[in-house]
Amino acid sequence: MNILKDKKILITGGTGSFGSALLKKIKTKNIKVKEIKIFSRDEKKQDDLRRKYNDSKIKFIIGDVRDQKSLQYIMNDIDFVFHAAALKQVPSCEFYPIEAIKTNVQGTNNVIDQAINSGVKKVVCLSTDKAVYPINAMGMSKALMEKIAISRSIYSNIKTKICVTRYGNVVGSRGSVIPLMIQQIKKDLPITITNPNMSRFLMTLDDAMDLVLYAFDKAKSGQIFVKKAKSTNIINLANALIKMCGKKKYPVKYLGTRHGEKMHETLISSEEKLKSKENRNFFTIDPDDRNLNYEKFFSKGIKNKLNYEPYSSNSNKYLTVQDTVNYLSKIEEVTDFI
Predict the structure, then answer these.
(1) What is the rounded distance in angstroms from the CA atom of residue 107 to the CA atom of residue 102?
(2) What contacts 87, CB < 8 A, 6 or more positions away?
(3) Which of 70, 53, 64 minimizes the C-alpha distance to 87?
(4) For the chain, which residues make up each domain, given as ranges?
(5) Domain boundaries 2-168+203-228+266-297, CATH class
(6) What pTM, to 2 d.p., does this model score?
(7) 189 CB contacts (<8 Å, ≥6 apart)?
(8) Is the pLDDT of residue 291 over 80?
(9) Annotated active-site positions, please?
């Protein structure tokens, strides 16, 4: 994180889980940044963070990525942008898809436009597994967000580096299933499960932070980065939480798969696997190199006869119930709920 030393940083959606975690890491590691601008619509969360840190280097700005003018005056002297602002709840995006487009698609375009115009050195856009093979409005809008980021990165005259990070649901974050299950156990209500065969990646805020900082450090413009993760099925997750809450047996109610919900999470499609590279901890998906040459869309392909499988939560061997307990016991966001 030393690359952030003496730099000015902007975090859009900065009062959310990622922005709060990045602030905490910068303060914990005592990184001597020059300035951090927190840009969001949530004045209550901004006030909470302001009181928590009481740091003159942290500037809080009320604004909306939908409004490009509200981005203009704050980005002129920024070195790096972490773009985390988004509508993320699947049901609300299903009910109001045009609002998802305004924030996740047009808002991203506004951020990138202004970053380029202001001479920002690097923009890291945060995406989601739901952008891969999208089946709901949130995933579709995030897939378009990625396309905008990648398409803007191909112009050779642009000095701003633009990259994308993609990760699954963060364990213990707002709206995730773990706090809901723990709350149900505490209230002596049956745990509700949609489908016991459903699987999910297990990712912590630290995992998400590692991914974003890795991309920030290594990225060439147009690349997508994915962190390898453990996974388990929903019934193992539920039984692990029952065990962690000190219960031996506990009722489970099956609801059935909900609208817009996938059986398994996918972080890399089979088509993307053809052009991805991997190391011990990360995948890197290189951008399309055909630029604006339309003819190459018809004449240039990937010569590879191997059958690549997508990187999905059911690609891994699932953690057992005890393995899941051991994993979750190390995560503060989970143990705090219990």
Answers:
(1) 6
(2) 93, 99, 100, 103, 104, 138, 141
(3) 64
(4) 2-168+203-228+266-297
(5) alpha beta
(6) 0.91
(7) none
(8) no
(9) 130
